[in-house]
Design brief:
Blueprint (H helix, E strand, L loop, with lengths): L1 H74 L6 E5 L8 E9 L4 E2 L4 E2 L2 E2 L1 H13 L5 H10 L35 H7 L3 E2 L6 E2 L5 H5 L7 H13 L17 H4 L10 E2 L4 E10 L2 E10 L4 E6 L1
Helix pairs in contact: 2-3
Amino acid sequence: MRYRAEGKKQNDQRGSALIVTVLLVTLLVTFVTEFAYEVYIDTTSLSNWSNAQKASLIARSGQTLSTGYLTALNKGHNTESRLEFPVERDFGPGNNLAIRIEDENAKLNINKIYSDGLTNDKALSSLQKLFEYLNINPGLALVIADYIDPDSEPREGHPDSEDNAKNSGLWSVDELKLVNGINKEIFETISPYLTVYGDGKININTATLPVLVSLHADMTETLAKRIIDYRETSPFEDKTHVQKVSGMEIIGQQIQCSLGWCPMIAVKSANFRVTAKAAVNEITRVIESVMDTSMNIQFWREG
């Protein structure tokens, strides 16, 4: 019996030792796994940080490259409101750069609906007509006017138009998201045709169909399409040349105003939005800017 007891005791001790060993091995494996995972995370984070920095530098290069392109555009008469193209340059395996250039003078400047202490009725009418063409309630133009003008008096028929109004010019088209009645869908519909940059001159060589339609109360879609067809074969070299378009003899003269905004048209652009998107091993960086043809930066955002 004594031998059995001792044997059982030894077996119990061996079992306990095995359990302890298994626990130690388990803990060791856990520690090693966690350590390896932390090393992996740290290494990946470092790699991603490095790729992000490289992508940022490439995107900045895209902004620099675009300045030369804008200089070339200014020498001629461009007829495209938006240009998108990849940059054919070797940035290394897995690296690429794409640039988008948008003509801000192909859009309506919403800040021009209020200037020199007064509402510019012609500019406001253009905004209303743009909304109407886009199947947006033209009354929203009045709400935007109240959001911008400095007084606190709502316009007739829009009692809530002064709620949370900024009462000054917009710094960005994105601010329209704060205007009462403008939801995401409406904003996405109207924002491609609006800007807050430039002097309000509309480049008739690059303005899109909706913007051309909005230039005058009597401008029809047919006339706007004739302008586009004309400039595709013979870009306007002078704003008076718009009168050469069939049906534009009178309207063409009226939209050339040299005093005030009626609106005043142009045949060259002075303000461009440049978006440079760089990718390095699937890590992307986007730099967006607005600059004039003298390369003065009016807006800069990196993300």
